[in-house]
């Protein structure tokens, strides 16, 4: 049966906030969870992903998990180890012990950030593109994808790993014109990932139907995802401000953009 209750980790964050407004419209009852208080959510669970007992308690009784929580920028290795490696392991172990059969894992374009940037609009990058993380953060997403594969092969827990491009209300850079996942398409994709049958462990890219798309949405579409949005209406303004991407610039030559040389850092 399709999941009805879903735990959303990282619910106080940007994507969590966008999704808590949208996923109930698809019929889900959400249990929100974060280490920080979730605004206007008195029933939200406060739990540190690094605390196995708290995570197990948060997971108990839900049908599925949308795992958005963790450090979402670059940080020192020990911090990424705690929140992302240990935190994601705690989610999978709690799911196994509590009998939760479906997880949607927020992976990232930074799992493959050192991959050369494809031609704009070529939709060239397949979902089996090999891991080339650009940061410890990206490495934690490679780990999460591999952990998902292990828990499918060994324990029959299904995962869709969504390599999210840039999920924000609007694209704000020329790079994001290729990577943008509109909030509405994000909800469409997460809903498809939560409900599609027999996903095993499937890796998909998370983008809208952008004119300047870099990657292949075939595996995402195989779940029933049909993106409706396109970043192109923002292109004229952003290109006027920044110019087009220049392949001779190392920060433009890789999928991960400026993250390959100077990643934005998680506040410490
Ligand atoms: P965000 O930084 O706004 O939200 C992450 C949330 O996780 C925060 O509310 C934070 O308090 C929580 N968190 C961090 N460490 C935690 C811990 N130890 N225990 C419990 N909660 C903890 O990030 P955003 O943008 O909402 O991203 C959501 C997820 O999607 C993240 O996993 C991120 O890596 C991934 N992602 C997001 C992209 C985007 O465009 N927004 C692109 C690619 C991946
Ligand atoms: C990510 O993985 C980050 O979590 C998000 O904040 C954005 O920076 C995004 O990648 C991006 O590459 O735009």
UniProtKB/TrEMBL annotation:
The keyword NAD is annotated on this UniProt entry: yes
GO function term, MF aspect, one: oxidoreductase activity
Domain of life according to the entry: Bacteria
Family: Belongs to the NAD(P)-dependent epimerase/dehydratase family.
Protein name: NAD(P)-dependent oxidoreductase
Residue ranges constituting the NAD-dependent epimerase/dehydratase domain according to the UniProt record: 6-166
Region (Disordered): 241-268
Organism: Streptomyces coryli
Lineage: Bacteria, Bacillati, Actinomycetota, Actinomycetes, Kitasatosporales
Record keywords: NAD, Oxidoreductase
The keyword ATP-binding is assigned to this record: no
